[in-house]
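Q: Predict the bound structure with phosphoenolpyruvate.
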Amino acid sequence: MIIILQPDSQPDGPEMRAVMDYLGNKPWISPNVHQVTGTQQVLTEIYLVGDTTQLDKAEVEALPGVERVVRVSREYAVLGRHSDDSRAYGFTYNGVRFDQDSLHVFAGLCAVDTREHVEQMMQALQQNGQKCTRMGAFKPRTNPYSFQGLGKECLPWVFELAGKYDIKVIAMEITRDSQIGEIQEALEQTGHPTGVMLQIGTRNTQNFELLKEAGRQQELPVLIKRGFGITLEESLNATEYLASEGNRNVIFCLRGMKTNMGDPHRNMVDFSHVPVVKRMTLMPVCIDPSHSVGTRQHSPEGLLDVFHATAQGVIAGANMVLVDFHPEPTTALVDGPQALLLEELSYFLEDVQIARDAYLRRRKNFAEFYQS
Ligand code: PEP
Ligand code: MN
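A: Predicted complex:
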């Protein structure tokens, strides 16, 4: 059960005290308080854990300051979409809005290598009107002896370059909880020229210690990838675990599943699950066509498989695209074979727009069908 207080109620205000006093008489219930900052107002939500079947919904709703009570119909209490659920969802970070209706492309380097490459990438993004990118400084690898990223030393100059080209959000993977502090510190030291969305990679979807730390801080949003060898439910459970620590600014990313049934793609593309995740949860859904497809192969008409997979995700309603580019893929230290070229960026963005327009038309068409 979720108790939603009237907008702008204070966590130490009389409304909260009234609810807590009421719950104090029910020791089998433990409340968990979340503050949700929307575009217009701050909402306080109290998540009740324990046997809530014994609670009278109408009685709780009659408490002073209670706006609404939602009975949780599935296990993802915080992130799940429940039957009578009209909770605010989505978030704005560093001026960029993320929700189940928005769409942002995060094109960038899989791994930061040289200052020149980072600058060329950011410049190309700015020339194409982009505000977001991906830049890996900490890289978990299939082979642990491979290059693991430049680490915290590159953070200040990567952030400064992002500021120079007006990039607002960088998706950056973390592999250890100490890296969260390193990123926050580097942002602080450089005067916040940009923002960072923490990325939890597919190899860490069930690294619960890392999830806990990413969920405990609320400054940086989190992009969590679906685990490549576990069920969707297990990945969503892990994501819920993160959010239940307090950080609800979470985006879920599909990136293909590890099975040789997907060959010759690197992973089995799972973008038909975009609408599934949107139905089950309130999270914006990201697709990563680069790590799904993993090659620069193309179909006979010339379109790259990465372009096709992206279009498939976007036409199904994806809210974010995480995609590898590199100015010189042959010299890239990580994932060069799947990187798109800077010269391809404008075509890629146009292709995304074509698929997005088609999605919006499909949506409108069906809305008319329902109204008629
Ligand atoms: C990445 O995005 O750089 C990455 C390592 O992806 P994944 O965790 O999906 O393999
Ligand atoms: Mn990669």
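A: Residues 345-371 form the longest helix (27 residues).
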